[in-house]
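Hello,

Our lab assistant flagged a job as stuck in the queue for most of the afternoon. It eventually completed. Since we weren't sure the result was trustworthy after the delay, we are filing this so someone can double-check. Below is the sequence as submitted and the structure that was eventually returned. Let us know if re-running is recommended.
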Amino acid sequence: MPRQRVSSRRARSYPAAAVVLAERDPVLRRLVAEAGPPRVRPPAESHFEALVRAIVYQQLAGAAAAAIHGRLIVALGGEVTAQRLLSLPAAHLRSVGLSSNKAASLRDLAAKVLDGTVMLDPAGLRTESDAEVVARLSTVRGIGKWTAEMFLMFQLRRLDVWPTGDLGVRKGFGLAWGIPMPTAKELEPLGHPYRPYRSVVAWYCWRAAELYGGAADSVLTR
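-- returned structure --
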């Protein structure tokens, strides 16, 4: 039987990219068969709301973060915008349970959205590369490369993000491909064969860490 030809058309969604990757690579074919298509929920928040949530949730247990985030939304009157956030005094932000550092980070995010340092307009974002988005977001106090990469992958649905610093991705790659867990530097070139769908490979690495390494289920894969 002739070998099935891989479509030359570029996939535009996580599930479609998973099909392409399964045709290319036997390890990913097995992972797709075992884990199913990627479960990536459609964004339910504005870009600004998603970044506010990311800052609030950093280094907090889920229940505590959810409670603080909920109080913040109430304090904002349900209007999670840069203008509204900057209108709240820092003391008011602290009163909902935010640390002084997180309150400062949120105010810095809002200020940089308003002055154009951080571009969140959908039309403007479409003109920016992944690297440009990461660079802009990384100017915000409290937002590092990992947070920016998660924003690209799950909020903007960019398909070729490769978060080499993520421990789960590194662990899952090693387990799935049967190699010692690579360092971030070692993982970088290992992703090259999977361009332009490295975000999808990263998702399956997280699943591999859960399936083969006993990692707890993650909000990133559910």
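-- support follow-up --
The delay was a queue issue, not a problem with the job. The result is valid. The longest helix spans residues 198-213. The radius of gyration is 19 Å.
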